[in-house]
Amino acid sequence: MLHLHWAALTRLLVPACFVSGALMVREYLPALSENTQIVLAALPYLVAAICAVMAYQFRRVRLLLAALGVAALYWLIQNHLQVSLDHPDAARLYLVASLAVPLLCLYLLVLPERGMFNTWGLLACVFFLGSAGACFALADLILGASAGVSQAFAHRPVEGYILSIGASQLLALVAVAGIAALLLRNAEAEGPLLGVLAAGFASLAFLHLESISVVMGIAAGLCLVWGLLRSSYAMAYRDELTGLLGRRALNERLASLGKRYTIAMLDVDHFKRFNDKHGHDVGDEVLKLVASRVREVGNGGTAYRYGGEEFCIVFPRKSSEDCAAALDEVRERIADYKMSIRDRRSRPARSKDGARRRGATRIRSDQVSVTISAGVAAREEDGQDAESVILAADSKLYKAKRSGRNRVVF
Is 262 helix (H, G, I), strand (E, B) or coil? Predict the structure, then answer.
């Protein structure tokens, strides 16, 4: 069953603000001095260069290619599309751009992030350039096609809106695909890429507006910078396997807590035995399951992965009694969840045979469940530091394990 991360939609707010803000700022540009406008005209290149350097440092090939694409689109508009689109050469290049923006964004949205300095990264760059070149061939096919097809991709369908009907529909489809990818993956790159898509759309659809490519080029670059900053934060503070905040984020949070708080330490019961029996892949799925439930703890708690199969939850301004019910609810939800594990001996040697058999018959599976134990401790006296509270919660955790596991002790 697919799990949709609806909270990920909030990542579209910042790109939307950049793009809409750029549209509003554009109206004030004609009042600026000539020298200021010259500087602004160079800013899209500068911001794209900053994005490219940051993406290179963080090994984010998708955002690096997006930055290069933003610079290329801006260069194309500034050097070849500042003329009447009734000219055949300009009309052809405009059609190429209106195809390239959605198709290349779609490519970057579906492309997995698997590093830069490897074969995958090299192939990703080669296919990106090849896809850009294919847009020229596709444009020529459309121009030479039947009158109905060429008319669907003809510019200026309505007054004040230049983008063709066909390209507008293609952009809308890619936007829907991007939102779906954002909901399914819950990754950091989809939001900035959708911002680039929106900025590219505005640059082409409202090409007749003065300085539209300048402000949209800057907005697209800012979307990418924002995405790279979020990506760097995730690399530094989030656990890659579970998506929870990690030890570094926890240490910073502990240093900023007030005088009243509660800390809970949680541990997956018999995890090493489970790992040895079912394998590390299944063990990773167990950790993801537990993390997904712990993340939803109530009463204002924030979950962190402490290390291995151990998790930590911080409840600011709460007593241990206040948090016990929320923790017990999480414990019950985890214990009640049944995981289906396919019998490895029943699996065929070839994956294709396995896929064919799954379509015809149901392979026998074993249902298993996991439990957690938790220890809860609150800051009880002045001068007590967070490390002491964690040690107290750890002591309660081991008491829960000695008492039979699958329980909360506070």
Answer: strand
pTM for this prediction: 0.73
**For the packed helices 88-110 and 61-80, what is the interaxial angle rounded to 10 degrees?**
170
* C-alpha to C-alpha distance for 347 and 153, rounded to whole angstroms: 50
pLDDT at 354 over 90: no
Indicate where the chain has its CATH 3.30.70.270 domain(s): 247-409
Catalytic residue among 34, 309, 321, 387: 309
* DSSP per-residue codes, 315-356: EET--HHHHHHHHHHHHHHHHHPPEEEE-GGGS-SSHHHHHH
Helices (DSSP H) in 270-319: which residue ranges? 271-278, 280-294
What's the residue count for the chain? Answer: 410
37-49 pLDDT per residue, tens: 999 999 999 999 9
Sequence-separated (6 or more) residues with CB below 8 Å from residue 252: none
User: Which residues on adjacent β-strands are paired with residue 304?
Assistant: 245, 312
Q: Taking phi first (over 0 means left), then psi (-120 to 50 degrees means alpha), and beta for anything else, what does residue 404 get?
A: left
Q: Shortest CA distance to 363 belongs to which of 340, 384, 383?
A: 340
- Cβ 283 vs Cβ 275: under 8 Å: yes
Burial label for 402, CB within 10 Å (0-12, 13-18, 19+), is exposed
pLDDT band, residue 265 (cuts 50/70/90): very high
Active-site residue flag, 210: no
**247-409 belongs to CATH 3.30.70.270:** yes
Beta strand 365-368 with 372-378 is unpaired
